[in-house]
Amino acid sequence: MARGIAGALAALSLLAPALAAAAAEGEHHAPSWSLTILGFVNFAIFLFVIRRYAWPLVSSYLVERREEIVRALEAARRAQAEAEELRAEFDARMRTLESEAEHTREEFLAIARLEADKILEQARRAAERIRNDAQLVASQEVAQARTQLQREVGDLIAQRAASLIQREITPDDQRRLIREFVGEMRESSQ
User: Fold this and answer.
1) 23-80, pLDDT tens digit by residue?
2) Which of 24, 1, 3, 15 is nearest to 46 (CA)?
3) Spatial distance between the Cα atoms of 130 and 32, rounded to a whole number of angstroms
């Protein structure tokens, strides 16, 4: 409402000198002192109205605007400082990124070497177990083969001996052998 009053007064104060000038144009007389004084009074009223009603609004607007600008500048300074900190962090991170990548690569290589060593150790143990199992199986098979061979040889010797005895022993030799065997049995039983 105060703005409306101030605007109306400002319009009236601007119109009064214009009306006076229009009236003066019709007459080509020299300006009168009363019109000059009326112009000064009109200007003084205009200044008073501006000072009383418009200036506080303009002043408060300018103060608020100044505070907004100060806040905006402060926010811009903070944002710029944060941006500079972020850029410094980014630059530092970029400088250390290559060394971190190298370090990470070395870690991965070390892990890969450890895993390779584990796998080789497991393979060595598995090969050792397979070798031991193969030796055990081979020695068992050799032992079975020996036992079977000894049986076969024993059977063959017994067959040859039996055929040899049947062919070479006479009935007198048989009686003599039976007597010796019976004699040995008696001696061993006593």
Assistant:
1) 555 555 666 888 889 889 999 999 999 999 989 999 999 999 999 999 999 999 999 9
2) 15
3) 134
Sign of the Cα torsion 28, 33, 36, 38 reads: negative
DSSP 28: -
Q: Which amino acid would we find at residue 71? A: R
Closest among 35, 61, 14 to 6, alpha carbons compared: 14
Burial of 42-74, coded b for 16+ CB within 10 Å and e otherwise, reads beeebeebeeebbeeeeeeeeeeeeeeeeeeee
Distance separating alpha carbons of residues 89 and 78, to the nearest angstrom: 16
At residue 190, the 3 state secondary structure works out as: coil
- The predicted structure's pLDDT at residue 64: 95
Please tell me what DSSP assigns to residue 27: S
Domain boundary assignment for the chain = 2-98, 139-178
Give the contacts of 10 (CB within 8 A, at least 6 positions apart): 46, 49, 50, 54
**Would you tell me how many other CB atoms lie within 10 Å of the CB of residue 12?**
13
d(CA 94, CA 34): 82
CB 39 within 8 A of CB 17: yes
Structure-token pair, residue 12: 């009236």
- pTM, entire model: 0.33
